[in-house]
Amino acid sequence: MHKISIKDVAKKANVSITAVSQILNNKGERFSEETIKKVLQARDELGYVPNSAARNLKVRHSRLIGIIVPSFRMPFFADIIQSMQDNAPEDVNLVFIGSTADNLQSSIYSLVERGVQALIFGRPIPNRDVVNAFLKKRHIPYLVLDQNADINAQDMVQTNEFTGGSLAASHLLSLGHRDIALILPNELTDNMRQRRAGFLDTLSAANVTPVSVISSALSKHGGLAVVHQLIQSQATAAFVLNDEMAIGVLRGLTWQNVKVPENMSIVGYDDTDYAEFMVPSLTTIAQPVAEIGQSALNMILQRLAHPNLPYQTAFFDVKLVIRESTAKLLLD
Amino acid sequence: MHKISIKDVAKKANVSITAVSQILNNKGERFSEETIKKVLQARDELGYVPNSAARNLKVRHSRLIGIIVPSFRMPFFADIIQSMQDNAPEDVNLVFIGSTADNLQSSIYSLVERGVQALIFGRPIPNRDVVNAFLKKRHIPYLVLDQNADINAQDMVQTNEFTGGSLAASHLLSLGHRDIALILPNELTDNMRQRRAGFLDTLSAANVTPVSVISSALSKHGGLAVVHQLIQSQATAAFVLNDEMAIGVLRGLTWQNVKVPENMSIVGYDDTDYAEFMVPSLTTIAQPVAEIGQSALNMILQRLAHPNLPYQTAFFDVKLVIRESTAKLLLD
DNA sequence: TTTGAAATTGGAAGCGTTTTCAAAAAAATT
DNA sequence: AATTTTTTTGAAAACGCTTCCAATTTCAAA
Lengths: 332, 332
What we know:
The structure is a homodimer.
Chain A: H1 6-13, H2 17-24, H3 33-46, H4 52-59, E1 64-69, H5 75-87, E2 93-98, H6 104-113, E3 118-121, H7 128-137, E4 142-145, E5 155-159, H8 161-174, E6 180-185, H9 190-205, E7 212-216, H10 220-225, H11 227-232, E8 237-240, H12 243-255, E9 265-270, E10 283-286, H13 289-305, E11 313-316, E12 319-321
Parallel strand pairs in A: 1-2, 1-3, 3-4, 4-5, 5-11, 6-7, 6-8, 8-9, 9-10
Antiparallel strand pairs in A: 10-12
Helix pairs in contact in A: 1-2, 1-3, 2-3, 5-13, 8-9
Chain A binds a DNA duplex through helix 2 and helix 4.
GO molecular function (chains A, B): DNA-binding transcription factor activity; transcription cis-regulatory region binding
Keywords (chains A, B): DNA-binding, Repressor, Transcription, Transcription regulation
Domain HTH cro/C1-type (chains A, B): 2-49
């Protein structure tokens, strides 16, 4: 019934509350060996666990950081948050939320109610201005992952999406493909736009334009649903803006008896866990996911320590991973 | 600098703190229209957001529920937590932790420091006794997912793992297979044991014993690493205890030019998102993941509302999903 | 012994809320 | 106009903790 508090251990150890607090927080050098022992023992016998709500209230901060991603179910983000958690310092607490555009606002609100001191956005922010104003007003710094944003408004970590798209294009080009399709999600996020830009630029530098640009739902099923369009386009290769969709495409192609890579080359994006396990394994653009997660966390921790330093942007490079889903164009 | 508090809005609205508190918590019927309006307006102008640490301290509860899973990167658990979050009532907060056996204890500790009122374990609990004692002492109810446990010690949600294993066996049997391998993870969790039991029982009822039992790391790479053993076993079919490993196996088999299902049938377990996208698509045992997540959350909420009701166990059925990775044994 | 310094300890305020209970104001009844 | 009833409001305590600062004890030096 009765939650045991610092008062209880003070009473049991026959010392003041002050002593208990100081000692348990490793600030008790000034106390005698004996008191220290008494306190520790009382703590253990009682099984006292401090109440961080009370602590936070008093010290006026929480060491709580909120991380907002579109969904836990996307491997890319699962990797990111796992790497954050694995690398978080002992004394900081992370809270993850998978949040759609619809409830982003209320997610943010609930997070600041809970006292987060900083936020990391792994997803696009609708109404960026109001979110920014809201957060700035409360002095809650935030960081955005892979999104265009005012470089002077917050920290960012970015990967070289443009290069990514470009790498995909030159790979396909170098294999001799000229009839190339582009498959992109219905709703383009900033990073997707850059992938596309890099891809398109490199293509047009070689004087080729895509034979087809296809919109798909951002999911495996989305990719699957779109393969007949791809087939009709007469393309010999396709760049699919992320691995999830690419996996769907691969699957659909096999069902339609289109051989990959003999009759169609496919390159994805993200180098998700699953890419190398597809049949055929998926050529794709790899991002250093773990580093991205760590870096984001570290930057925001930095920010908390030094609120007034100029905002920073971390850049990560991207690389092409060649696997089985792409091959030289066969001439007939 | 200065975080704005209830006091500020009271001052601005020219009313008491009491009034503000009551009104903003929808307990302000007794106040006049006018005061209510003043308060709301002041709240809005100031952009006041209540401090839940203070609130929790005062009301002595948090509506916070901790969910501990082995890793965010396992699709099965990603699905579970997503479904929990999607179905959580407005006023409850969820905090997810991906925790290995090593830091389970400290994860739990940190969660109770943060004031969780209940816990859901999606992973095995080493030292169950001490965990149980720790939690019971603090009146923190918990629920376990798919684990053996004293039915009178906590709530549980289980799926019919035994049936799952059995279904896999009879499917393979009915296809004419008699040389069947079993691939299981290095470390068997309770639910894995049951899968195995169901599988083995059904096999032996038909008078067959596995030609080989192979241990693998619980991952795609683990499955991959183990295919040569599988091939050497001369099995014509294998039951792999989860989809992740099965995906690895599928991949390895293709590389070894073993045709699935012509030369080897494979059945997995979980019906992960990816199962249907493999080439060949994976026959597997499906669990109603979303329902499981919701049910777990609802049960623990129930428990919070009625701490003294007898513990309950929810059972979910499991079903065989036949896809391309299994086929009739070809006679030669 | 006395004194002063050093070592050790504890009282109390306050963090932002909620809630009880009494007080004040307004309205209704004599 | 006086009284009672009803409506509306606010003061203050408490939740569990940290921390400032003053109080007490111990000990060495005079």
